[in-house]
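Re-run requested by the PI after the first attempt was lost when the workstation crashed. Everything re-entered from the original request form. Ligand of interest: adenosine-5'-triphosphate.
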Amino acid sequence: MKHLIGFELRKLLILRVWIILAAAIGFTAFWFISTAYPKGMNSILAVYKAEPERVKQLIGPVDPQLAEKYAYRLDEERAEDSDKPDEEKITAILEQHYTVTGYQANLFKQEVLEAQQKIARMEERGEQNTFAYRDLSKWLTMWGSLELPGFYVTEDWLHLFLYTSGFPGVCGVWIGLLLAFGLAPLFAGETVSRMDALILSSPSGRLRIVAAKTAAAVLFAVCSVTLIFASTLLIACLPFGFIGWDAPLNDLYPTWATPYHLNMLQAFILQYGIALIGAISFAVVIGLLSALLRSSISTSLIAAGMVIAHLFLNDRWSVLLPTFLLNSGRLLQSYSTYNWFGYPVLYAPFALACTLIIGILAALLSPVTFSRWRRSPS
Amino acid sequence: MKLELRSIQHRFGKKQVLRDISFSLSPGVYGLLGPNGTGKTTLMRIMADVLAPTGGQVLLDGQDKDKLGDTYRAVLGYLPQELGMYNHFTGRAFLRYIAALKGLTRSEADERIEQLAGIVNLADELDKKCGKYSGGMKRRLGIIQALLNHPAVLILDEPSVGLDPLERVHFRKLISEISSDRIVLLSTHIVSDIDFIARQVILMGQGKLLRQGTPAELAGELAGEVWQAYIPARLLPQLEEIGTVINVQQQGEGLDVRVIAGRPPCEQAMPVTPSLEDVYMHHFKSTPGSRKVALSR
Ligand SMILES: Nc1ncnc2c1ncn2[C@@H]1O[C@H](COP(=O)(O)OP(=O)(O)OP(=O)(O)O)[C@@H](O)[C@H]1O
Ligand SMILES: [Mg+2]
């Protein structure tokens, strides 16, 4: 079996795959260098590069008095855009960022307070058994356990997050394209190379070959996600020494509303895991399509269509699209639940389960579809 | 060991390609003979478990092949008429892949590949990419892959197409050597291929089984009906009306002809011993196209 899986992988690793992979990594490097890396004194990251010690002193939870002291900076122009000399600019950037963080910490506390008041009012009205009450309490429990927004340098992680899960989540698109074009020949390629007869007439020609091909597709998906995520992480954060890896996730503006108590590194690893599940399910679905259509071209076109579609669909039922989780950050961005007979169920595990079920169904249907080849030979 | 076909039928859409084919095979070489489009390949695909027939059964030692499943396919060696391969694989990698499909271990596979490549003269070409193989090299690679698992049932669809005369002789020798304890079914429209090695001939026409028997038995059916004559060219149309003209050769002023006819077709006709080719022509001369094939070999 190990042998067969090895051969199936070898059949998949054709030039086209390496080209897409090289294009993906090349594009990532180009994007980060041209748009995300600091140019001149234009970001907190640039400040950190210039004066790391000074920045490090400020890092941590906000000191409200200090934030108050710098509040006058809010009336000034955006410090990064000013044409003051660098030394002045550095001070301005730091102070402006610090006071903004203080403002965010207050907002955060405000949200908690409002929710507590709302809950108290609901209790007075005896609404403890409603979904709205349970949902709000659940949110408050999660939100309340988070750290207050603090002062951190997380711009490298911000760009990483935008690249993996913004619009468009470029990482997900590259992974999707790798799978769509790399895996389309999984079964269909045997028809093209007229190997179907030899495979079908062999003792492994029913279940075993389908299992080997499915396993190869899964390995292919795992390698694709790992290579793309690892290269993106290195390109985004290595030049800055991974600064901010232990900052809370709600420090980034796209994830300010996250209810999950995670730091940047944990969130990234979680995203990787989510993308893995998405990619594995998607890979199995492509395998099924390949066996069903017996054409690499139509399979890759439909699969590429799913990759494009996942960028635009974002309501809760888009989870039925096997590519949904390729944009792996969307599950971490906000508090989202689902009314399960009056009880709130977090949307994230629900979405993960949906995608897994789609993958399992596709895996179960593949042998059936493949055995139908005997009814209509090429 | 016995391989039995019971009332095999096959239809592609509305087109009935195989009609009620039944025969049984025991160890030895069988030649499946018939003109283009008779359904030889279709029948072999069914026996190789590549195509599900629309009717009938294939039984190995009395057990249905569909019930035997993997066990049935484990005893098979199959060379399709159009062999596929992966152009970016070397011949050796391709054979290792087939060996893996057949469940051989890596060392068994390598040993067997060396051995068979030596026999069919492909040992020096094994590390070339399949895409660069000539037609005859591909055919030999196809023969090796079919034999990798020491198959008890060997199904070869036009195995000798593309082989040069020397390789064809090697191939015939190989088949004779291995056929003592296994069933070998090979299809061809090259009568001489079968004449030398086949114990039995299965004659197919238009999806039906016409005859099954040893070459001698089949030829015997035409005893006293095959004639050889030297005639002036102008008499040829006359002869064609009386019987089936199988062969015409310019010989000095006149023609040397071979004719199948119930009575002597002309005065100078001499009776000759019928051959398998005569039998083939007797059955298929009327089918357009078959004549060309038989004469052009
Ligand atoms: N996949 C298919 N779909 C429809 N018809 C088919 C298919 N395969 C074969 N046929 C038809 O079935 C008939 C038998 O074809 P088959 O290939 O079995 O003949 P054959 O005896 O092997 O011919 P040849 O000597 O040329 O190899 C032909 O009329 C062919 O057109
Ligand atoms: Mg054929």
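Saved to the shared folder this time. Residues B 40-41, 81, 157 surround magnesium ion (ligand 2) (CB under 6 Å).
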